[in-house]
Fold these 2 entries.
Entry 1:
Amino acid sequence: MNKIYFSLAILFLSSIRFINAQNNISDLVLTNAIIINNVDGTLQKSSTIQIKGNKIIKIDTNAYHLSKKNKKTKVLDLKGDYVLTGLWNNHSHLSDLLPDTNSLLENESAFSAAYRSARNAADALKAGFTTLRVVGEQKFIDVALKKAFDENVLVGPRIIPSGNPISSHGDGDWLVKSAKGLDAIKKAVETNVESGAEIIKIMVDRMKNEEIKVAIETAHNLRVKVTGHASNEKARIAINYGIDMIEHGYLLSDKTIQLMADKNVFYDPTIVCNLSADYIKERENRIKSAGFISSKDVIDGRTLVAYADERDNTFAKKQRKILQKAIKAGVKITTGSDSNPISEIGLLEIEQLVFSGLSELDAIKAATINSAEAMGMQDRLGTIEVGKLADLIVLEKNPLENISNIRTLKMVIKDGKLVNLEKNEGEKSFWELYILKK
């Protein structure tokens, strides 16, 4: 009954529209583009990308001439703008609020949570995030949203849903599904997958070793990947049991980092949630010095979010060092914001990787090709290649020169269709609705 209830809740959100219908347009051509190769950082100038339906069918450097008889193709002259494959956010909780400044979560209806989740996802798409991996959501709202987006009831990013995180000690955590004992853990994993989860999130630090093993084995038998909220000791145990990804990775040792590299376990550091007051100030100064002056609401809001997760200097420095060691060891990094709204905190996470010592190319890889590979979707997404799905963003400036240039967004293309980036008249910002004090 819950799944039907939430599916209906999502269907009633169809008043939200984000894409130009263009019913008579089936093909799209981007010409005079500079394609960013996110594998090696090279640029392919004066390029043309031809899209048919939802796939890239041709990439070349020849001028494109549209036949006057061809009325189903739209040609966009980018005039030297940069094209990058769509961004991913791999640690999303669509309905969560941290901080919950106005105590909205305390007695919230299911419909309210669903509306906020849909708005959060839609705003993320309009910021360039064409794929969201959800690693913990209440009442399968993420599954219902995926269905709504896939069936074009609403337009939003690709959703990789997880349902509730699973733990044997989830008491007191509104988001976590508590399953005590091996049989209950196995059943919880099976239920999530049967309900539409495409990834399983386990709270590794709150589970016994055998419970971790059963959760991973059950998910893998169902051909579903597993990620885990984990600190060093339990992370190493989960890695040896075959976990696919580690979230946060608090206080990872050199030994654990090397084990992750050896076993090709992906690392989502959520580094934006592990900042000291000094690092928060550093972040704001670097964004401002790059020429990006945000509105007061955005600055106030993202600062509130940052201080809700503030760490002391010692811990923040350790997490930054762990990230640097991981990339040096060859661990594949992905990007995840954890906090909301994804449209802003997701961008901050990508920027923060660079502010924490990674190169611009490493940060872009984390937000694109590494993310697709982590989910086994690199044959469809993650790079700009013929035959892949046309999830693309167009930037005015090169993010390889300054990572904050991901903020110079001019176009988003998802599944071969242009996203309408205009703000709807009268629409309040996410900050005003959910973060700032009313």
Entry 2:
Amino acid sequence: MNNTEFDAIVVGSGPGGATVARELSKRGKRLLILERGGNAPLKGSLLATASIVDAVSVGDNVLMGRTLTTGGTTSVYFGATVPPPLETFLALGIDLSRELDDVERELPLAVLPDELLRPHSIRLRESATALGYDWVQSKMLVDQSKCASGYTPEARWTARNYVQEAVEKGATLINRARVLKVLVEKGRAIGVEYELQKTKKESEIRQAFGTKVIVAAGGAASPIILRKSGIRNVADRGFYCHPSVMVFGTISGLKRGDGFGASMGTLIDGDIHVGDGNFARTLYQLFMLANHRWFRAFLHSKTIGVGVMVREGLGGGLQENDRYYKELTKEDFRKLEKGEEVARQIIRHAGGKNIFKSVVGASHLGGAIRIKEHLDENLETECSNLHVCDGSVLPENVNTPTLTLICLGKYLAKRLSRSL
């Protein structure tokens, strides 16, 4: 690898990085994709899922989950999407309207019919609507042509799809490669240094060289990589993490069976999102075990859930030991409590009993790298040829980031291809 130079090196294979890699490889560019996680086929077992899930601390007893595998966190996400806030990006000098049009034509993006939804999700919708809440159903990235016989999780689109397309077009994918820093020469990015995990106990430091470097390692990892690469002002105004809780109750009388969930919800007071919290068995079990609810882990079919997420502003920071730290405010907790009460009301009206809430967690970590401050309209840093395209650059008003990151990836690829 030390003797090979690529047109572009993409660090991370989540939706942003995978899209850049796919688009550039389609244009015949020589691509290297470095992914920290493995590339084993995803399996639905509890142990397999637990092996790829990692937690990042963002404050006292507040953790954010992420997934280390090809495709990033889309490997275990629900498939729900929200369009990018076009006006917000326009104000930052970035027009994503054409990219959004392209995505809507290319990807299986649609509101799912009831027969593909979990019965628990439908019951929640009926309860929330009866209580007067505007319970909106989001479009899902699900290929319904694969659901002729009913629900199948393989129908859900993930960023792994784009990575596979890139590899088929000639891109090189290296897994278990943790990028340590970007190599910089005279203010210009020339490659990356990474640690390749060869066995459980053996690793080696390698370097790869490329004309362009795109850091897309995720909202938590990218700011650390940039700081270690000499860009010290990242996270200078902190970050946001969108604190969240889950509220669950037991319910009887619903049919057994799986389906797609977590695609509906309502917005309260502009920044409290209350939504469907019914997801696949494996993730549910993992969540219950993490919250020390051992018995509840076996009650997937009898559990109905609602998620609460609060959008908050920038704060906290990235410490010198590469740890994020932020103290949630009294106002954050007040909003969480208000959302929790709405969730309990909906669950009770739906027939749920034995209601409890989870510990406070974090939904997304972003805002540490900001467009027009750390990046220009080409998503390029102060170091030329070094770009960032992942959740770390998203403004606070992005709820579900997958579709926004795909659009940003297409946008960046168009600009990079002009100079490669």
